[in-house]
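Onboarding guide, step 5: your first structure request.
Type a short instruction followed by the sequence, for example:

Predict the 3D structure of this protein.
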Amino acid sequence: MAGPLRDVVRSIDADVPVYRVETTQGLFDERAKKLANLLTGISSSVGLVGLTMALIGLYAIVAYQVSRRTREIGIRMALGARQGQVLRRVLRQAATMGAAGVFVGTAVSFAAGRGLTAGLGTPSFDPLLFAAVPILLLTTTVLASLIPARRAASIDPQRALRHD
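The system replies with structure tokens like these:
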């Protein structure tokens, strides 16, 4: 149909160029794909920004907890605690905090997914996603708490005992 359409346009005005001939359905399909890709990109970007902010916040919380407990950690080290023990203790506390957050977040997302399924009529449960995200979040929690944990393990007991 492109050839006859070009001939009709040329018969009306020969100076009008006809570059691209396509159906309205094809145009709508192409725009729908572009819109879906744009929304996916925006969602991914917002998710990455959220993950980055969560990591920064988690680091700040763990660093604050460690700085608040500097005297306690110094006393433990003065009484014979080794760096590895202090490191494990701080990492364990951060992992416990992260596990609680992952548990609550998974429960809320599962419930919200059921609500979205009922409202939109599309399936929302993805077993791979529900398995991978908690593992990823726990891993990032431990990695974000590693710097404050290493700092806590390297505290000099004498300086920590003088700390207010």
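Each response can be followed by summary notes, for example: Residues 2-162 form one domain.
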